[in-house]
């Protein structure tokens, strides 16, 4: 048996590694995405006052702390049986929409986008944000940095800190906004809509106009039918902050729609001894291992999943973009993994439009943004749609609101099984009879997990430099016969 | 740093959340300035599997390494030693590397109980074979290895010699920029200094007005709507401001939430929790010792509150480990 390690692919609560094992014929026998780190939040949440968890759990991920902050605050509302006043709820969603704009823009321009904008076969040294700026022009690069920054300014104004905000507490928000702030937010929201439309146009011009890229999107190596999960509103439109979670099967039929308190009926997490990360799956379908399809409980929770699991977008221009995507790629659900990048831009536009709706809501400056909890705390679940997947926080407390039990199913974790399968598929298609297409393997296998925008990835790709990869090919005797690597500085 | 050569900058994360990296992204357009002046070896130093490549570098090859994240696993520790050797200047960047931060609260437990919760007890767990992760595991196709998860979270300083500390969870972008400018200008202060912060406390940056000791009862943040103009501590919210180093700009109190101490101990304080406890004593308005004891006794989760960001670095360090057979 031969072993190939692609190392490190990236990190999730640490670092990651792909081990590829070849059989005697030199074809892929199996691929393992190994996550070698854990921090133990579910344990050390015990004993903490539950109202502190919205400030503690964001340290699970500093890339999407807003998602943990909101899921945690919603779980706290449920623990205390307290209703958040309308303005409080809207302010939370406003912050969350601004965060989505910043986060999706970060991914497209800095993390995942360079694969397309520069092309998967571009020299690695150019496949980064500076390469993108070089290609689209410094002016546009400046606009990207500015628009991302303005969205983060909204997060900072409401949240105190832009990274690890502190404003959402059981019963609402710590502070209301005034008219001056609202007007600033509105101006930003208008600019973000233009920015989202402009970004979609870049996608059309650079990706869709290039047959090579389109063929790659439609290729078998990047096609994977699974169940799809995403949060929807009462009209089954995509929703990020609140709603029910809907799951559709690989044929697009609704499989289940559930509220936060029902999550344990739907999702379970498989433990494997060779990795620190668990594999969530749909309980009623069952764990059949790392395989796609209708008989496997593996599901995806990505921007594409959310569009697949919904009946459309709740804002007009995002709805148009959504229709354009399905018109181009075919009927729902779309199983082309790389279409995730397109779906992310549809969501970018939705987030910007929703941001404007909230900024112009007459209630948004209402000073009543909090209700003080009066009920005895017990147990509660909070769910939001994090950019990288459905995020569930579940707390139980004693009579004083001190946490006794905590369970978390985190965004990227949902996608652990599908990422593993996607990587295996990509490797399978590119490694045959022991022959390895050097850069093709490196770039395309990397693309297979990067499209999921795993939490760890954004930050690491934010700065110049490409993720170095190494493929080690071991002969039958365990000796290294070849090493492919790039960008080792 | 000498001559016209670009500065070789490294940024590594150990056990961390990625927020320190996003804080660098939050430098926004200044990132282009860094790019123009530095060769950023971010990923080459970040590789656990590239040990050999990093090892192949001459010692001191990296001019400045900003190391964020705590030491949670054997892999984290290995990289700490390796990067110390390969870096002229090693900076503990952010609260995890400097103080242990929030993930350091895991020191109230041990590996066995953390594994039990995550892999055996959590209500969504499906684990028919009762597995917990193993450092080596034989799969049909070959062996898979993962690093050892330690019982205790350690700070970078507890495993390696550190030149500077940049506090904060995360360090605030304007402060990061101050540090970068000092690095580029070759104007770093003496070894061992805290950089990217002030020599005062968070209270000095806070806009809320302090009065005098007046607390008869402590409130948890969700239990009261504070007056936005007055000191939150005076109003009965535990606020770590007086025990915490300044530099963040008192951002949490700007939105009426009390400080939790992410910038680490105030200057000249060794133990942030002890400093906060003494601040608590100073705001209580009690006529008798019994009353004072009652007021303090109502504080929930004192360790998790007073040592929110600094348990591993504190004099307490961790809870006692039970001997296990």
- Count, helices of chain A: 17
Question: Which pair of chains forms the biggest interface, and how many residues does each contribute?
Answer: A-B, 109 and 91 residues
Give the overall average pLDDT of chain A. 85
Largest sheet data of chain B: 5 strands, parallel
N- to C-terminal separation of chain A? 32 Å
Q: Give the name of the CATH architecture of the domain at 83-221 and 336-364 in chain A.
A: Orthogonal Bundle
Percent helix of chain A, as a range, is 40-55%
The neighbouring-strand order within the major sheet of chain A is: 8-7-6-11
Number of helices of chain B: 11
Oligomer: heterodimer
How much of the residues of chain B is beta strand, in percent?
A: 5-15%
Key descriptive features of the protein:
heterodimer, A: 489 residues, alpha+beta, Cytochrome-c3 Hydrogenase, chain B, four-stranded mixed beta sheet, three-stranded antiparallel beta sheet, 18% strand, globular, disordered C terminus, B: 325 residues, alpha/beta, Rossmann fold, 3 domains, five-stranded parallel beta sheet, two-stranded antiparallel ribbon
Report on the architecture of this protein.
- The complex is a heterodimer of chains A (489) and B (325).
- Chain A is of the alpha+beta class and 489 residues long.
- Chain A is 42% helix and 18% strand.
- Chain A contains 17 helices and 18 strands.
- In chain A, strands 8-7-6-11 form a four-stranded mixed sheet, with helices on one face.
- In chain A, helix 12 runs antiparallel to helix 13 and helix 15 runs antiparallel to helix 16.
- The longest helix of chain A is centred in the middle third of the chain and has 30 residues.
- Chain A is globular and about 65 Å long.
- Chain B is of the alpha/beta class.
- Chain B folds into three domains: 128 residues, NADH:ubiquinone oxidoreductase-like, 20kDa subunit (Rossmann fold, 3-Layer(aba) Sandwich), CATH 3.40.50; 38 residues, no CATH class; 105 residues, no CATH class.
- In chain B, strand 7 and strand 8 form a beta hairpin.
- About 2% of the residues of chain B have low confidence.
- Chains A and B meet through strand 2, strand 3, helix 1, helix 3 and helix 7 of A and helix 1, helix 2, helix 6, strand 6 and helix 8 of B.
């Amino acid at each position: 048996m031969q072993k190939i390690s692609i190392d490190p692919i990236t990190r999730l609560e640490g670092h990651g590694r792909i081990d590829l094992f070849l059989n005697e014929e030199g074809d892929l026998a199996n691929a393992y995405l190994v996550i070698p780190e854990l921090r133990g939040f579910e344990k050390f949440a015990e004993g903490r006052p539950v109202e502190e968890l919205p400030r503690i759990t964001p340290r699970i991920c500093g890339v999407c702390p807003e998602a943990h902050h909101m899921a945690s605050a919603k779980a706290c509302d449920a623990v205390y049986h307290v209703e958040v006043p309308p303005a409080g709820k809207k302010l939370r969603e406003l912050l969350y929409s601004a965060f989505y704009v910043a986060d999706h823009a970060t991914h497209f321009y800095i993390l995942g986008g360079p694969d397309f904008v520069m092309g998967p076969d571009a020299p690695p040294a150019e496949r980064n944000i500076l390469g993108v700026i070089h290609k689209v022009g410094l002016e546009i690069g400046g606009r990207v940095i500015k628009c991302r920054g303005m969205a983060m300014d909204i997060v900072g104004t409401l949240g105190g800190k832009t990274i690890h905000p502190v404003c959402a507490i059981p019963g609402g928000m710590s502070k209301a906004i005034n008219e001056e702030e609202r007007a600033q937010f509105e101006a930003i929201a208008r600019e973000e809509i233009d920015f989202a439309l402009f970004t979609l146009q870049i996608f059309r011009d650079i990706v869709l106009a290039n047959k090579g890229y389109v063929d790659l999107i439609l290729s078998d190596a990047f096609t994977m039918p699974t169940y799809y999960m995403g949060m929807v509103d009462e009209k089954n439109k995509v929703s990020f902050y609140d709603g029910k979670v809907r799951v559709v099967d690989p044929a697009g039929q609704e499989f289940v729609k559930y509220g936060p308190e029902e999550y344990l009926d739907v999702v379970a997490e498989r433990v494997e001894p060779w990795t620190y990360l668990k594999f969530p799956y749909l309980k009623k379908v069952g764990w059949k291992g790392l395989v796609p399809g209708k008989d496997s409980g593996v599901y995806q929770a990505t921007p594409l999943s959310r569009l697949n699991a919904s009946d459309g977008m709740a804002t007009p221009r995002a709805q148009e973009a959504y229709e354009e995507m399905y018109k181009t790629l075919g009927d729902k659900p779309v199983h082309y993994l790389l279409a995730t990048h397109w779906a992310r831009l549809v969501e970018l536009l939705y987030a910007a439009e929703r941001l404007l709706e909230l900024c112009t809501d007459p209630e948004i400056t209402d000073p009543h943004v909090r209700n003080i909890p009066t009920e005895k705390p017990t147990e509660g679940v909070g769910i939001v749609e994090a950019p990288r997947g459905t995020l569930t926080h579940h707390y139980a407390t004693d009579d004083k609101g001190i946490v006794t039990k905590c369970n978390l199913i985190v965004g990227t974790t949902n996608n652990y099984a599908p990422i593993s399968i996607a990587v295996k598929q990509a490797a399978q298609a590119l490694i045959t009879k022991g022959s390895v297409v050097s850069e093709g393997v490196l770039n395309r296998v990397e693309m297979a997990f990067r499209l999921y925008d795993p939490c760890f990835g954004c930050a690491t790709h934010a700065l110049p430099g490409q993720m170095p990869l190494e493929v080690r090919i071991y002969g039958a005797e365990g000796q290294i016969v070849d090493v492919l690597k790039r960008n080792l500085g | 740093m000498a001559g016209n050569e670009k500065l070789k900058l490294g940024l590594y994360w150990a056990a961390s959340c990625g927020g320190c990296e996003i804080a660098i992204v939050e430098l926004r357009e200044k990132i282009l300035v860094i790019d123009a002046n530095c060769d950023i070896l971010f990923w080459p130093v970040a590789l656990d599997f590239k040990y050999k490549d990093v090892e192949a570098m001459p010692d001191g090859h990296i001019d400045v390494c900003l190391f964020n994240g705590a030491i949670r696993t054997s892999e984290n520790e290995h990289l700490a030693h390796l990067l110390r050797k390969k870096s002229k200047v090693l900076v503990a960047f952010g609260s995890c590397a400097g103080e242990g931060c929030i993930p350091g609260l895991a020191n109230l437990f041990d590996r066995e109980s953390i594994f039990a919760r995550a892999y055996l007890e959590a209500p969504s767990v499906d684990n028919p074979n009762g597995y917990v992760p193993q450092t080596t595991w034989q799969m049909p196709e070959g062996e898979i290895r993962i690093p050892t998860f330690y019982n205790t979270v350690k700070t970078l300083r507890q495993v390696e010699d550190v030149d500077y500390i940049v506090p904060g969870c995360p360090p605030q972008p304007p402060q990061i920029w101050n540090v970068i400018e000092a690095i580029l200008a070759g104007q770093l202060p003496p070894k061992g200094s805290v950089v990217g912060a002030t020599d005062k406390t968070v209270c000095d940056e806070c806009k809320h007005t302090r009065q005098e000791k007046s607390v008869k009862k402590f409130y948890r943040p969700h239990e009261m709507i504070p007056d936005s103009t007055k000191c939150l501590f005076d109003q009965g919210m535990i606020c770590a401001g007086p025990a915490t180093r300044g530099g963040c700009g008192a951002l949490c109190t700007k939105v009426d939430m009390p400080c939790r101490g992410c910038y680490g101990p105030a200057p000249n304080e060794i133990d942030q929790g002890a400093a906060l406890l003494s601040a608590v004593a100073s705001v209580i308005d009690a006529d008798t010792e019994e009353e004072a004891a009652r007021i303090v006794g109502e504080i929930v989760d004192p360790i998790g509150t007073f040592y929110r960001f600094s348990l591993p670095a504190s004099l307490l360090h961790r809870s006692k480990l039970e001997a296990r057979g």
